Structures
1.
Amino acid sequence: MRRNPRYDILFEPVRIGPVTTRNRFFQVPHASSTGHELPNIRTGLRSIRAEGGWGVVCTGYCSIHPSSDGAPHRYSRLWDDGDVRNLSLMTDAVHEHGALAGVELYYGSSQGRNLYTRETVLSPSGVPVNTTSGVPLQHSRAMDKSEIRSLRGWQVDAAKRAKSAGFDIIYVYCGMRFGPYQFLSRHTNHRSDEYGGSLENRVRLLREMIEDTKDAVGDTCAVAVRFSTDELMGPLGMQWEDEGMAALELVGELPDLWDLKTFGLEDSSNSRYSEEGYQEPYVTHAKTLTSKPVVGVGRFTSPDSMVSQISRGVLDLIGAARPSIADPFLPNKIESGREDEIRECIGCNICYSCFHESVPIRCTQNPTMGEEWRRGWHPEKIAAKKSEDSVLVVGGGPAGLEAARALGQRGYSVILAEAGEELGGRLLTESRLPGLSEWIRVRDWRVDQINRLPNVEVYLDSRLNEDHIMEFAFPRVVLATGSTWSTALADRRNASFKIEPVVNILTPDDIFGEVQISGTVLIYDYDHYYLASCLAEQLALDGLSVIYVTPADRVSNWSEFTHDQWYAQKKLLDLGCRILTGRYVPSFDGEVVRTECKYTAQVDEIHVDSLLVVGARTPNLELYEQLLLRDEELKDAGVSTLSRIGDCDVPGAVVHAVYSGHRCAQEFDEGLA
Ligand code: ADP
Ligand code: SF4
């Protein structure tokens, strides 16, 4: 197929200083939680984007000197020649696929704590280190002039190492309150020398670092500046329309490229609270302030939105972190007229959570992300089938859909049987909750792919029992029957325990089903992810009086890692929900909920109309267990393997179900004679 001429503009080459990118698709720097410790995984997950057609592929943040380490998170570094060798694995692989390689050099200042190197943290004015995560307060030391000269030298040394590692684009990082940004912002720079005071003085270090870097490597490498245009804190931080634009204008012509994005809560914003293109207000007019190319982000997955950004003069290059993670082959799909096959990012930020949890990046939509080297998985290719066995997949949620799709891609003859009238499993109901509409893309992409595979047949309205499975007599059976939310409560042992059946106790399955509730509902959340707060939001919007109780100290505690915790808590407060944190629910008698303080053990009683428990789930194993009981009959019917995947194996998040389905397909032939 051929590219739609409407998208030609996206494939124009763009000159960036001394180098030229083959098109406008730019994988901007993003954390991958691999760093110098896992160079092969890093190489795999970066170079796959080059193979998929991105014109530029960048590292994540890369430290220039031991006085700025990224611990406890994984970070890249260019401190010595060993690091050069380590990173050249990536540049070689990126170049092999015709893309430019970029490196995001950074100096963290008081945004870091130097937990690994134990070096003194240096900053413009000796401000406290970043304490938003609740770490004990510790100050950085104000840099004297010789230390500022040293910092400039470290940037130059790292830039030279970057050049010898093969990088084409070398960054000066002036954002996220790192090094030069702390000098730039009047909120963190209280100096009285020529580096403090007026904006011209505060921008001095940035100017010097750009000039130094250009002098050192600018003959063959482009020098880019990543700049946080707005800290989204109003007058308490940098604002685009205030000093953001003014600062950019002062040094607008110095670098070869501007990479613009916001900083703060809306940086990598979760789709619960933002839409595609959400950063535009914070980069608008940038191109009137510089003649140099501008790259920006906004979770772009639609080629029409990308074209609009360029033709309206907002951006020159389409920056992407998450859309390139969810679909490394996004550019190639547009190039070959297959834009309807793009696996669109759902904005869930599971990828981001991996940075916080210090594990290599994972993605809900793309189960191969982070597994390119370790398991040899590829987002577009998969080994051909190794037998003529036909496969019966039972259950069309994320796990069953992905297994059926990938087995079909391998060439197996597959039947996917789903009890409901539609495919999608939990995605069908959950994506109807406030803010989760993009999650249905997990189903939509897979259903579309399955519809293109003549060897995969779908049976809807087909709740299979043991007899049906015997009748099918397929040699390979995969159960993906999901899980059921439980009414079990949890107490201070952090254990969930079943209670005697009582009236008015509900689970999310009841809310998604036929059960109608009214009056006062108490939601007990010990799942700690998005579902309880989404349900609270929905029920409050439906007019119920909502009380949210959790043993954690915040609403949707784990969602801190996916960038929506703050919004979830704010939303419930705005909607007038009562929030009780640090409390267990040890009992309920159908009318009265007892809540117990996890610190003092003090018990309170609350009268409610219903208790909604969002806690544990139990795998739907009835079918599996019945089949095991009829082991011999199964064998006689010709069923040689029976496996279970997704939530019916171990209940988890959608990312785990998709991964489980994909792994089933990848390893389908293993262990067979
Ligand atoms: P997962 O996240 O593991 O994919 P889901 O709960 O989202 O799990 O999906 C499980 C799907 O399996 C649901 O759509 C459900 O209707 C379907 N299902 C459960 N039991 C059967 C069965 N016996 N026959 C066919 N489909 C089933
Ligand atoms: Fe997008 Fe979620 Fe994948 Fe991240 S994990 S790239 S937000 S789909």
Note: The longest helix spans residues 145-164.
2.
Amino acid sequence: MTQGDLLSLWPRRHVDRTIITPLSRVRAGAEYSIIGVVERAQYDPKRQLLRITVTDGLYELFVTFFHGRWLVHQLQPGTRVVLQGQVEYRGARLVMTHPNHQVLTANEEPETGLIPIYPLAGDLKQRKIQQIMKDIVPRLAPQVADPIPTALVTSEGLLSRSEALLHIHHPPTQEAFDSARRRLVFDEFLRISLAVLRLHQADRQYEGVSQEPEGPKSREFVAHLPFDLTVGQQRAWDVLKAHLVAKRPMSLLLQGDVGSGKTIIAVLAMLAAVDAGHQAAFMAPTELLAEQQWQVLRAWLEPSGLRVGLLTGHDPSEATRIRQDLSSGTLKLVVGTQALVSPSVQFHQLGLVVIDEQHRFGVRQRAHLAQKGFFPDLLVMTATPIPRTLALTIYGDLDIAEIEGLPQGRQPIATRHLSYAQRREAYETVRQAVRRGEQAYVVCPLVHENEESDLTAATALAEGMRQVSGWRIGLVHGQLSAKEKTEVMEQYRNRQLDVLVATTIIEVGVDVPNATVMVIEEADRFGLAQLHQLRGRVGRGTKPASCFLLADPKTDEAKSRMEAMVKWTDGLKLAEEDLKIRGPGQILGRQQHGLSGFELADPVADLAMLEHVREVARDLLRRDPDLAEADHELLRHWVDEAMHHGELGQLLH
Ligand code: ADP
Ligand code: MG
């Protein structure tokens, strides 16, 4: 780590120690910073509690620390400390539980103001990091050059970057902190907006192609569809058609809830490409899903006399053949993972790329899609609604179409939350479903530190059920090879298995309409988005379906999640609930969307700012497309750097 890097070790929060309150004035029910001397200290090894009494000579405060062993030697009697935390009554005593603390040496004055709390790394103690930063930030921050031209800094009413860096660590007041954060969030947004827009400018050199959505293959296909498109599908298809016909390179995000029928729209688009004489590729996030979607697409497309290739890692000789056929153009349609867009796969004339349930497909990867002299159309499909501005920021220019509603005749999935004491009810429903010839999923969470014990849990569950139930039970988990997974899924799809016990690898896309019951073990371990995706695996046919959440939730938050799942089946509604329950910060966290990558900015909470900054970026590039002007030089380097390094770089990849 260089000193410069240290500047971007952002404080996670600040502790307000602006005012130190004399012990005589401390009352129960509020938060205080106090100063005192440790009078007594007693460690209870069994409960790992450290109890100390702090006094100012006259008044006393009782303090408890959890996991206090490591504090024992720091907080010996006679030590001067500053403590900061909530004060409550216990009996007649005033107590503080697990406060923030700072040990003072003999004559040391307590630090006051807003004290930064850093994420702890390795062995470094909080106090040590604070000292290092206190030393380093004031020396380095003033040397940081401001990449944003002064005129813009002024017109936007921003702090200088130096001042912002200084105040994000050591703000004299809350207002100073807010201004500092505003400036730094502005910077993050400006950087990515400029990066994306610049990458996009590079795309413009490519021509697009047009597809033929009313060609013979499409028409024949639509005529033989076993169902009518839903109103939502028809609307989305109309939007999509207009883009497919246009010559301009298409980038379209198709949003539609789990089960809304996105795949068939993709099939229509792929046929439009074939009718125009092009090839089409369908990309899934995992090999398992690629395999599964291949089965689905084949079933739809082969009756039209079209071969669909599957490109995976587990049959090298087959892969070689498919690559040859793609480059010669004899194979028009192919399904696979991201490997499809790697340079090792050459297409004869790739006209359309469909990306299913994959959020981490940024502008960079799009660049890989460029063909000899033209740019294929791009259709990204997702069940997780992404705020429009954010989508624009990540994907560059992007149109959005939405499938509203679900196909007719869908029964809402009856969802129940059962405690472990009521677990039998869930399995009783499984038993009845199996008796009717239907199938069930049992999902086990990844809960343990090492995958092996998860596996043991899932395996034990499967074994146990096999012994008592007489069901034909399959097991899929992350440690099976792709081939093994496929085999189990295949058996399940062919109804050779009644119950599939699975870890979360079945989360997205798996489509077995005969499966009508889902049991989610330890459901409180899953996030809402994940639960919704999981539940979407059932209720895909016309038979009524049910989902059981087995959980004895320990926290209010977990309880709210269970309640939300029982109450709502609509993905949008659940996303809203999720916002309420967890706050925006985590929704777009790495695990959820892979869209994070911001250091300080919260792309949801700061959305209005993002929208504004995007306009600022557009404006800048309108006037100086290559950022070639003298006072844009720093800015240009700073943006280029973002494209190649760090979190932002990853975001773009
Ligand atoms: P998702 O949007 O989650 O990818 P799918 O495309 O897998 O949803 O569709 C879910 C199920 O609904 C599939 O079995 C599909 O064949 C079926 N389906 C799609 N469109 C319709 C429709 N218009 N009417 C009836 N069933 C449909
Ligand atoms: Mg799908």
Note: Residues 583-596 have pLDDT under 50 and may be disordered.
3.
Amino acid sequence: MATVSLESFCSEIERCRVEALCALETAAAEEHLERARVEFAGARSGRLKSIQKQLGALEAADRPAGGRHFNELKTAITAALEAAQTRLARVAAAADAIDVTLPGQPFRIGHVHPITQTIRRVQEIMSRLGFESVDGPEVEDQWHNFEALAIGAEHPARDPLDNFYLAVAHGADPLLLRSQTSTVQIRIMEQRKPPLRIVSLGRVYRPDTADATHYPMFHQVEGLLVEPGATMADLKGVLRFLASSFLGGDVHVRFRPSFFPFTEPSVEFDMEWGGRWVEMGGAGMVDPAVLAAVGYDPATVSGFAFGLGVERIAARRYGVADIRDFYRNDVRFLQQF
Ligand code: FA5
């Protein structure tokens, strides 16, 4: 092998250092870095390898100095390689991070279902008259759904075809999904003494065929007031107040004589809608026999109660012609409220 002078060996080392550090420091992607690694530090034909081979061509006296320069070059290239790897790994990690400078996108949030909106609004209106919101169970016994409300064993309202009875062990009294919220009147009167003003809004169930004004699961708002001296005039005033607060002062309402086993006298409460009268619910003065059955003294207190269909008053308020629309879960319909 021809002899190589220390001077030309050192200038080759210097050229290699400059080119290697430049390539490694500017590598912007993994493949650039890998190309530079192979070119300068490749085990078989890298530039470091070929410079190392030239060490043997130096004069014997120059080899220690040449070896020192070579080792410095090797250390510098190894350090630059590691620094470039760390830098590119950091860039890759930053690319996965959240870019807080990106512009925002519209965020779609839902809202409360119109029936729940109606329930909350009715609760709020009734609270202004001092009516406290209470709840009752949806699975009921026959005492609270019928008997305590003077709906006797032979009454057609107890027919299995008109109720969702639940299967029970032989001999036990069947429970049922409550068919009216009037059950809550009894439950509260059993627990509390008069005076009381309560309102209860919740689901009730009847095997009715679904149509524009009926659904097998629907909601009722039940109101009950028991105080000394309560009269039918109070009942009418409260229902008018509820109707005009919820629907606006120009709503027309009417009371029609009717019959419920647990109120006497009883009325139907209708609202005018599009030139027609639509039944919203039933109402009346709590029958003294019902008051006596829960331990109240009908000689000192009287009361009124009402039960309205929530879907019907919601339909009237929002101009919805078919209450089935409330339960089709069509977002295009629901997002209008
Ligand atoms: C009752 O349920 C009585 N508990 C109301 C009552 C309470 C009377 C307190 C006296 C004192 P009725 O069965 O008429 O009454 O139902 C009341 C209202 O519920 C109806 O006027 C109607 O608005 C609504 N409703 C009845 N069945 C359905 C149904 N299948 N789908 C939607 N709403 C209904």
Note: The mean pLDDT is 94.
4.
Amino acid sequence: MCLFCKIVNNEIPSNVIAEDENFIAFHDINPKAPVHVLAIPKIHVDSFNEVSGEMMAGMTQFIQKVAVELKLDKSGYRVITNIGEDGGQEVKHLHFHILGGAKLKWEHFSDADTKGHF
Ligand code: 5GP
Ligand code: ZN
């Protein structure tokens, strides 16, 4: 069972801030902004590559609700999902980073070569 499935199952403790039948949101253990929350589906999905449109519809509403609960909706926030190797995904269970609580930076993400993609 993956790390985030264990969090869903309460086998690993987490600081939960919102939960419904299908999704759960908890504070990131290593915050990269004053507010850094992870929103995940309770069912295991590897990444954004595999998620259904139906699940994303529910996830969108859940993230919007979490942003209101965190009082980020007016000031603004950022939603990120990392996918696979180049995306920097470390935990192979779909999760959306919800970041806010300060004016966030927007840096270049890579100095590496483009691997011929562009
Ligand atoms: P990724 O790099 O896969 O997009 O993001 C994984 C995130 O999970 C990282 O921001 C990391 O700090 C967070 N994380 C890793 N292990 C744990 C944990 O055991 N508990 C919590 N709450 N967050 C974790
Ligand atoms: Zn999982």
Note: DSSP finds three helices and five strands in the chain.
